[in-house]
Specification:
single chain; 241 residues; mainly alpha; Vanadium-containing Chloroperoxidase, domain 1; 7 helices; 62% helix; globular
């Protein structure tokens, strides 16, 4: 498959479909938020499953290597998107699909997650709170606190990054695949999200709410940016970019 032909046909939707999916996504984000605010011990209970006098899985070499491989894979994807964007810009080709992809990366995991939440929200990581042998105080999801000064727990950077990567891979590749290929791609991408986000929970670096909300927030960013690049038609689906 040639890079220049990859975004020629992308997943398009009409306005009713878009609005319906956006509403469901907002509702799901609100429900998850309310559940973890109302029952903050869910985060403690989940993290405690992997605590045995310490988060022992954090010391497993194969998991550390796997995490590094996943991180470099996400970096590689960002470099790929940026490279194709610049290449098409120099060739004066259509930038819509790649501009959308780059915008989602910049606004979601880089801007919202790392630039705002992880920098200013101040939630201490599980391994740093007193319940798990640390010195910091536990704070529920969405609580603005001062228990962390930099690179904090809320929300998960890698959770947001893998969600964005998976969404954009599906966005670019889905229309090119037949039904069987889409099925296998979907399963692989879901597994990738669960693996990457789950690793941060089992090693005590993020609470479950950190990862779930990061995934949902970055998905919401992509949904909100979509109509800026692909104007919605109220009555039919456009077939080409």
């Amino acid at each position: 498959m040639q890079i220049r032909n990859l975004p020629a046909k992308t997943m398009r939707m009409n306005m009713p479909t878009y609005l319906r999916q956006l509403v469901w996504l907002i509702l799901l984000t609100l429900i998850v938020s309310v559940v973890f605010i109302a029952f903050p011990t869910l985060d403690i209970w989940t993290s405690r499953l992997f605590y045995r006098g310490g988060f022992w899985l954090h010391e497993v070499p194969v998991l550390q290597s796997l995490r590094r491989a996943l991180i470099w894979g996400m970096y590689g994807f960002v470099a790929f998107v940026l490279g194709v964007f610049v290449l098409r810009l120099l060739r004066r080709q259509s930038l819509r699909a790649w501009g959308f992809s780059l915008a989602v990366i910049l606004v979601g995991p880089l801007g919202l997650v790392n630039g705002i939440f992880k920098t200013y929200w101040g939630r201490a990581r599980p391994s740093d709170i007193t319940i798990f042998g640390g010195e910091k105080t536990f704070s529920p999801a969405w609580y603005y606190t001062d228990q962390c000064d930099f690179n904090c727990s809320f929300t998960s950077g890698e959770g947001g990054a893998i969600a964005t990567t998976v969404l954009l891979i599906a966005f670019l590749a889905w229309p090119k695949l037949q039904q069987n290929g889409r099925r296998w791609l979907g399963l692989a991408l879901v597994a990738l999200v669960v693996l990457t986000a789950g690793l941060r929970v089992v090693v005590g670096q993020h609470f479950l709410s950190d990862t779930l909300l990061s995934i949902l927030l970055c998905t919401l960013v992509a949904a909100l940016l979509y109509p800026l690049f692909y104007p919605l038609n109220p009555s039919r689906i456009n077939r080409r970019t």
